[in-house]
Write a structure and sequence with these properties.
The chain is mostly helical. It has 2 domains: 1-72, Orthogonal Bundle (Multidrug-efflux Transporter Regulator, Chain: A, Domain 2); 75-124. Helix content is 67%, strand content 3%. The protein has helices at residues 3-10, 14-22, 40-54, 59-66, 76-124, 134-137, and strands spanning 31-32, 35-36. A two-stranded antiparallel sheet has the order 1-2.
């Protein structure tokens, strides 16, 4: 199949496929004349790339997974290792975000407590007299 059909079947674009070949994510496709020819395995790799990106993998990370992939044996073990690493990275980020959230909740409570205390202080002070307006003094 030609590049347009491979793009359609994989849910990517022709431009993306060319870029993936250029940066080594996808092996260079053989040519028939001036046209690149792709097979189902290429489409499957393109789907893998697209799915991995949707799950937060960056192209640089995918380059690490697919570095030695020449179109024959897909690096399943390396992909599993990177998925485990990515999950751990996300777990760490979630923990950090939960700590940040807890800190914001404590900060919000402290501000509310301070606001209530200031309100109580204002209510217990004797009222101050405001000076009369200068216009109303001489008339």
């Amino acid at each position: 199949m030609y590049i347009g059909k491979a793009a359609k079947l994989s849910g990517t674009t022709v431009k993306s496929i060319r870029h993936y070949e250029k940066i080594g994510l996808l092996p260079q496709a053989p040519r028939e004349g001036k046209y690149r020819v792709y097979d189902q395995e290429n489409v499957d790799v393109l789907r893998f790339i697209k799915c991995a990106q949707q799950l937060g993998f960056k192209l640089k990370e995918l380059q690490g997974i697919l570095a030695d992939y020449g179109g024959r044996d897909f690096p399943w073990e390396r992909a599993q290792q990177e998925i485990a690493r990515k999950k751990q990275e996300l777990t760490t980020q979630i923990d950090m975000l939960q700590q940040l959230h807890a800190g914001l909740q404590a900060f919000e409570k402290d501000l509310q407590d301070a606001r209530e205390e200031c309100h109580l202080l204002r209510a217990s002070r004797p009222a101050e007299k405001k000076p009369a307006h200068p216009q109303s003094l001489g008339t």
